[in-house]
Specification:
This protein has 587 residues and is α/β, with parallel strands linked by helices. It has 14 helices and 25 strands. 29% of the residues lie in helices and 27% in strands. The protein has a 9-stranded mixed β-sheet, with helices on both faces. A 4-stranded mixed β-sheet has the order 1-16-12-15, with helices on one face. A 4-stranded mixed β-sheet has the order 3-2-10-11, sandwiched between helices.
């Protein structure tokens, strides 16, 4: 891959940040603190925290370094003995503005415990941020633990009030005198430096403000895989999410737009957060757009174990035949579709709007191959609507293959293609051409969402604007319809969910993920039909009378889980196409 040379890069900031664990050692591993108990909560991995504890011990200072991120989960992984556990009662703090916030932070604890351990959660309205863990063992012994969860009130980068996990220091003298204080960790300082750099930079008056705004970050802390599904604990992934969405929010606020407005076009925002080195490092720079190819070897579609290459997508489309449709991207990549004409009612099939949701791309192509073999097939397929984002996804997974990489979600303009104005030559134009050519009554729009927990720990923990997506809850459907099409929409949902219930493993996947979701996030608010949650919404502005949107927890999955994902996407398209042919329509 060709990356820009130094002459093409403008560096806005470059600096390192002393590792908090080492700074604590330098200050407190001294004769003056011999006999003290030092407790610190930092954003670092277990290995580094244990090394630091050992160094303190050698200096005559008792120390316990804990994780400031997901402290209850780390308590169970690192401090509590699981031997002979029979029951647990966990009290968690209930915040007025976010009642289940600390229950979410405990995810996926309920799934990690042995199945024969009973667990009860009890919310407690309190201003103190700690958990109380009541343990009962098979011997009859009972124990109670207080698990601190340090947080601080602050205003974030757009002036919103937040209550966020933070670094914390507690010192207890040999005489029992205790002092506590917030400490700014290296993790927090790096993020704040990045946000300050945005605020101090001079941006041009008209958007896009840049081609690529790059955050190159080295974090020394390693990811930790958990013994449940696709879950892991990753400070580097969480920092990617903070840098990406905080930057979007900064430019939304600067433009006078609402936070979360997807029409903003700042340019392509790229946090590249790698796990390396001994100290945290940040470089903020402006770079040219990356238009280089990202080749991958072709694979059999039905057994594809990860995202396929752009060349294979193009070749598979060409093999379908039909009329070729084209749009372009900011980086000059082609957005392609094929219109296959037949006597059936026309259906539009799309995927890759959010390019880090990759199972839909394979599922759409597999479905198109099936439909194309039918004698009266009538459809338009656009399997990769956001090629610039897809290329970025391929670039990012080269170093962090297990991360969700939401920087690849939107176009190189920085906007969601769904929000692009009509009549432009860019990504959304492929849908306009598809509708103009086919007059389709149904658009099947394949999407995904994170297959493991999504957090923003430095701005309140729960991702702003994406609260319903923070943990997996199975494969579900969203049906948008124009006014007067509600009856047809309901018929379509009934037919599709009946067909999906026959796909091996799907109903079971949903039941398992929904049960854990409801434990940590509260009751599912969607109706459920044939084992599949769904949501129906009226939308007078969409192109087609009906739009069926899939949401599969596919971000980061590979192997058999990815095959299951694109099989579900394919089955949805085929079932929706079939059902649409016999619906009672308003035409």
């Amino acid at each position: 891959m060709n990356r820009p040379n130094s002459a093409q890069v403008t560096t806005l900031l470059e600096r390192s940040f002393p590792r908090t664990t080492r700074a604590l050692l330098e200050k407190y591993a001294t004769p003056a603190y011999q006999g003290y108990l030092l407790e610190a909560w930092v954003f670092d991995d277990e290995a580094e925290r244990q090394r630091t504890q050992a160094a303190f011990k050698a200096a005559g200072v008792s120390a316990c370094l804990r994780s400031a991120y997901k402290p209850l989960v780390h308590f169970f992984l690192e401090e509590l003995s699981w031997v002979s556990l029979t029951s647990l009662v966990i009290e968690y703090p209930v915040l007025e503005h976010s009642p289940r916030r600390f229950l979410l932070e405990a995810y996926p604890l309920a799934a990690l415990l042995p199945k024969d351990v009973t667990l009860r959660w009890e919310g407690v309205e309190t201003s103190a941020t700690h958990y109380s863990v009541k343990v009962e063992r098979s011997s009859g012994n009972q124990e109670t633990y207080r698990v601190a969860a340090p947080n601080r009130y602050h205003q974030d980068h757009v002036g919103e009030d937040q209550y966020s996990p933070c670094g914390w220091l507690r010192l207890t003298s040999p005489q029992g005198e205790m002092s506590e204080s917030v400490i700014e960790t290296d993790y927090e300082a790096l993020y704040q430096a990045a946000m300050s750099t945005l605020a101090s930079a001079r941006w041009q008056s008209a958007s896009p403000y840049f081609e690529e705004l790059n955050f190159t970050v080295h974090l020394p802390s390693s990811d930790r895989r958990l013994a449940w599904d696709d879950e892991h604990i990753s400070l580097s992934e969480a920092l990617h999410e903070e840098l990406y969405f905080s930057t979007l929010e900064y430019f939304q606020r600067q433009a006078g737009l609402a936070l979360g407005d997807r029409s903003i076009q700042p340019g392509q925002i790229v946090p590249e957060v790698s796990t390396q080195g001994e100290t945290a490092y940040l470089r903020v720079s402006l770079q040219p757009l990356d238009s280089s190819p990202s080749p991958r070897a072709a694979v059999a579609l039905d057994t594809a174990s990860q995202a396929i290459g752009a060349d294979q997508i193009k070749q598979t489309l060409a093999a379908l035949g039909g009329q070729a449709l084209y749009a372009t991207t900011r980086a000059g990549r082609a957005v392609e579709a094929r219109y296959v004409v037949g006597s059936d009612r026309a259906v539009m099939i799309s995927a890759g709007q959010h390019a880090n949701e990759t199972s839909g791309v394979v599922g759409a192509l597999r479905a198109a191959e099936q439909l194309g073999a039918q004698p009266h097939a009538h459809f338009v397929i656009s399997p990769l609507e956001n090629p610039d984002g897809y290329a970025l996804q391929n670039r990012l997974i080269a170093t962090q293959p297990r991360h969700m990489h939401h920087a690849a979600r939107y176009t190189a303009f920085g906007n969601d293609l769904q929000s692009q104005p009509l009549g432009q030559p860019f990504e959304h134009a492929i849908r306009e051409q598809a509708f103009a050519a086919s007059a389709a009554g149904l658009h099947v729009n394949l999407h995904g969402y994170p297959a493991h927990e999504w957090t923003r720990p430095l701005t309140g923990y729960v991702p702003r604007g994406f609260e319903m997506w923070t943990i997996p809850k199975g494969f579900f459907l969203i049906l948008r319809h124009q006014p007067g099409w509600e009856r047809a929409a309901m018929q379509l949902v009934e037919a599709v969910t009946q067909a999906l219930a026959q796909v091996p493993g799907l109903v079971e996947l949903n039941a398992t993920q929904i049960a854990l979701f409801e434990t940590h996030a509260g009751a599912l608010t969607f109706p459920v039909l044939n084992g599949f949650p769904y949501l129906m919404l009226e939308d007078a502005d969409q192109l087609t009378p009906l739009m069926l949107i899939t949401e599969y927890p596919d971000e980061t999955v590979t192997g058999d889980a990815f095959v299951q994902a694109h099989t579900a996407q394919m089955a949805t398209v085929v079932a929706a196409y079939k059902a649409f042919q016999t619906l009672a329509l308003n035409d």
